[in-house]
């Protein structure tokens, strides 16, 4: 607390009392009213029974672990393989999409930072940004047009005789994974680009002069520099992919659910907000745990993200 | 870079941008095909009718209004809050700064679904506790959406301000204070003007993020609709090319904006370089006027307006009637064939069979696909819909119907 007071006083000394008060109040409101309390309130809610409005606050309104028990064991006592399976599948798919994005974006970030120059580099940056001004829903829709049973890929494939019957890319989740990878490309490229740009070209030249093949140049020189960027991009892509709702709703096959869709169903179809909250808490905790674990493994800190 | 490497980079960049733009280009093309399902092949008629369908969609248009309202609300709250966050971070000690930075950046990473849920649960409880008019105010789609979006959009604004503040030379403020300015004056006269461009871009990013957001908004808007949620429910419940038409509009606006911005940046760097007078473009008065961002914008708007006018004149009804007639002819023909086959079967086996009336004259979009299921024996030789896994496949694809024997 003392630290805050010194900071506040030095701030008031430099920018004036009015500004200091505004900053203190705005940041406090942001942290407390918008970030911390809503999360705590959701946590609290997830431990409650799904009661009709009249009984809320009454004697039946007690804490319970029922919502979490349901996630683990379902209605009977066996494991709730359905929901747990969906969660695992979501996480694995998110990891897969993240790796795909790293593989797609690393070369282009490197090219942008070190091969392209002048006009072509500016054009590339504009070209990168323009697709991301188009609404997320419309981007998913574009993939549906592309991959649908009568979509372009199927017409071309059938026309060229590559396959005989239309391939159901939607059911096979090809459309979903490409749509998700597409959706978050920008969030992967810019962190990697920022990291790689700091690299001195002379280091690459030196390594090459000493006879290193291209893959070793990347493995030993570029990748270590790019690592914080990759970690930051991968964290964002992973979190956004596992929390994605629109793309799975639009591009997901009929038999495959994303975990966010299960949460959505508890809220909007079953009107069981308490259980939905519990599922949201589970998603949040599992994602945070996974990201923290990965950051430990790759030795990066949260402070690097967003830079 | 060695030549093989640069060939590889060029090829990779080409492939990458094909992936980036391919889906969008195809979507744009489908906006002008009269086929009821958005697709490129088979091409039916060039039409601009889908733009009409789009504009007359009331749900989308009323969603657009609430999106604008929410967007303005989010700008008004998120930009100052983000600025406050950035200023606070600039003043704290290193350890506290790292902690606060983590707390403020986390909302970007939290799944939007979780943010939406926590927002409605929290403000719902507050409203219940207070009751009366407060409940009506807090438990309201607009308020909840603004609150939920501000939680993480402020962090975007903050990142913009942090980037700008890093380039601020603090000695300027010191100098102003030494020269007798009050701290408040120094802030208003030095720091705020320095941050002005960042305020503009933060407001812009904020508006865009608010407009685009789905995951949080779909919970917090309650029973209402914003543009994006209306769009999503339309996409989920069956698609038609009017969505492609929407994409055409958005992409055009983006392109016009990007080109104008580029013209502005070019001109600015040229003027800043001090060599503007010697440059071939700037030296020539006509070219100088033409490359002015305002002129570029006006020119692009004229082109767009002209295209819209031309498009509104275009009438594809004759062509569409032709296509419809063609489809009917094919259906009649199939019907004839089926009837004659059934007659032949009756004659041959003397057995009665339910007349298969699948594809023929069936208004249902599923008609074609079910033909095969309803009359598997009699329909077997016809290429209408067999082995098509999609329920829409047969009905929407006259291409597969066409090769029926004459």
UniProtKB/TrEMBL annotation, chain A:
A single GO BP: transmembrane transport
UniProt cross-references to InterPro entries, sorted A to Z: MetI-like (IPR000515), MetI-like_sf (IPR035906)
Major site of localization recorded for this protein: membrane
Membrane disposition: Multi-pass membrane protein
CDD domains hit by this protein: TM_PBP2
Chain ranges passing through the membrane: 20-40, 86-109, 115-134, 141-163, 175-196, 217-240, 279-298
Intracellular or extracellular location(s): Cell membrane
GO cellular component, one term: plasma membrane
Gene3D superfamilies on file: MetI-like
Recorded family membership: Belongs to the binding-protein-dependent transport system permease family. CysTW subfamily.
Species name: Actibacterium naphthalenivorans
One Pfam family per UniProt: BPD_transp_1
Descriptive protein name: Spermidine/putrescine transport system permease protein
Domain ABC transmembrane type-1: from-to ranges: 87-294
Keywords: Cell membrane, Membrane, Transmembrane, Transmembrane helix, Transport
SUPFAM superfamilies to which the protein is assigned, alphabetical: MetI-like
Automatic annotation (TrEMBL), chain B:
Positions with biased composition (Basic and acidic residues): 334-346
Membrane-related topology note: Multi-pass membrane protein
Family annotation (InterPro entries): Bact_Polyamine_Transport, MetI-like, MetI-like_sf
A GO cellular component entry from the record: plasma membrane
Top-level taxon: Bacteria
UniProtKB keywords: Cell membrane, Membrane, Transmembrane, Transmembrane helix, Transport
Keyword set includes Transmembrane helix: yes
GO biological process: transmembrane transport
Zinc-finger listed as a keyword: no
Main location group: membrane
Domain ABC transmembrane type-1, chain residue ranges per copy: 64-261
The family this protein is said to belong to: Belongs to the binding-protein-dependent transport system permease family. CysTW subfamily.
Protein's UniProt name: Spermidine/putrescine transport system permease protein
Organism, scientific name: Actibacterium naphthalenivorans
């Amino acid at each position: 607390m003392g630290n805050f007071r010194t900071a506040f006083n030095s701030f008031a000394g430099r920018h004036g009392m009015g500004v200091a008060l505004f900053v203190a109040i705005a940041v406090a409101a942001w942290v407390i009213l918008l970030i911390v309390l809503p999360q705590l309130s959701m946590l609290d809610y997830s431990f409650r029974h799904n009661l009709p409005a009249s009984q809320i606050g009454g004697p039946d309104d007690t804490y319970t672990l029922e919502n979490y028990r349901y996630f683990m064991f379902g209605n009977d006592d066996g494991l709730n393989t359905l929901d747990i399976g969906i969660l695992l599948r979501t996480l694995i798919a998110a990891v897969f999409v993240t790796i795909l994005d790293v593989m797609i974006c690393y070369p282009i970030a490197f090219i942008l930072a070190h091969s392209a120059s002048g006009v072509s580099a500016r054009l590339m940056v504009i070209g990168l940004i323009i697709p991301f001004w188009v609404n997320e829903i419309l981007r998913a829709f574009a993939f549906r047009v592309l991959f649908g049973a009568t979509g372009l890929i199927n017409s071309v494939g059938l026309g060229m005789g590559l396959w005989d019957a239309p391939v159901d890319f939607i059911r096979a989740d090809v459309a979903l994974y490409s749509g998700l990878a597409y959706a978050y490309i920008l969030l992967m490229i810019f962190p990697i680009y920022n990291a790689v740009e700091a690299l001195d070209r002379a280091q690459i030249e030196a390594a090459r002069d000493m006879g290193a093949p291209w893959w070793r140049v990347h493995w030993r020189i570029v990748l270590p520099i790019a690592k914080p960027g990759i970690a930051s991009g991968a964290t964002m892509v992973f979190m956004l992919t596992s929390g994605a709702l629109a793309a799975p709703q639009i591009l997901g096959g009929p038999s495959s659910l994303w975990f966010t869709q299960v949460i959505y169903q508890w809220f909007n179809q079953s009107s069981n907000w308490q259980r939905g909250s519990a599922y949201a808490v589970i998603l949040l905790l599992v994602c945070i745990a996974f990201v923290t674990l990965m950051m430990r493994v790759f030795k990066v800190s949260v402070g690097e993200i967003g830079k | 870079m060695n030549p093989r490497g640069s060939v590889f980079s060029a090829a990779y960049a080409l492939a990458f941008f094909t992936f980036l733009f391919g889906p969008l280009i195809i979507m744009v093309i489908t906006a002008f095909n009269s086929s009821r399902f958005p697709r490129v092949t088979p091409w039916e008629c060039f039409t601009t009718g889908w733009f009409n369908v789009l504009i007359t969609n009331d749900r989308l248009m009323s969603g657009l209004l609430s999106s604008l309202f929410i967007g303005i609300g989010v700008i008004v709250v998120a930009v100052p809050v983000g600025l406050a966050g950035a200023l606070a971070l600039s003043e704290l000690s290193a350890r506290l700064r790292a902690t606060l930075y983590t707390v403020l950046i986390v909302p970007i990473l939290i799944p939007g679904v979780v943010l939406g849920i926590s927002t409605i649960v929290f403000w719902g409880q507050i409203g219940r506790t207070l009751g009366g008019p407060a409940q009506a105010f807090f438990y309201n789609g607009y308020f909840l959406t603004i609150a939920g979006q501000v939680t993480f959009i402020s962090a975007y604004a903050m990142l913009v301000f942090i980037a700008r503040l890093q380039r601020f030379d603090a000695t300027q403020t010191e100098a102003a204070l030494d020269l007798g300015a009050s701290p408040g004056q120094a802030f208003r006269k030095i720091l705020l003007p320095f941050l002005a461009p960042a305020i503009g871009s933060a407001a812009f990013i904020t508006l865009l993020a608010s407009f685009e957001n789905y995951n949080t908004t779909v919970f917090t808007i309650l029973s209402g609709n914003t543009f994006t949620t209306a769009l999503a429910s339309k996409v989920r419940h069956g698609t038609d090319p009017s969505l492609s038409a929407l994409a055409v509009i958005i992409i055009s606006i983006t392109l016009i904006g990007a080109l104008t911005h580029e013209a502005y940046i070019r001109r600015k760097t040229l003027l800043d370089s001090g060599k503007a007078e010697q440059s071939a473009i700037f030296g020539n008065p006509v070219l100088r006027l033409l490359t002015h961002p305002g002129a570029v914008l006006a020119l692009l708007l004229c082109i767009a307006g002209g295209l819209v006018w031309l498009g509104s004149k275009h009438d594809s009804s004759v062509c569409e009637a032709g296509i419809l007639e063609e489809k009917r002819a094919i259906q009649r023909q199939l019907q004839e064939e089926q009837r004659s086959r059934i007659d032949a079967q009756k004659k041959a086996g003397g057995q009665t069979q339910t007349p298969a009336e699948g594809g023929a004259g069936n208004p249902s979009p599923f008609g074609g696909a079910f033909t095969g299921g309803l009359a598997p024996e009699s329909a077997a030789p016809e290429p209408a819909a067999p082995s098509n896994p999609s329920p829409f496949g047969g009905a929407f694809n006259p291409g597969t119907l066409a090769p029926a024997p004459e």
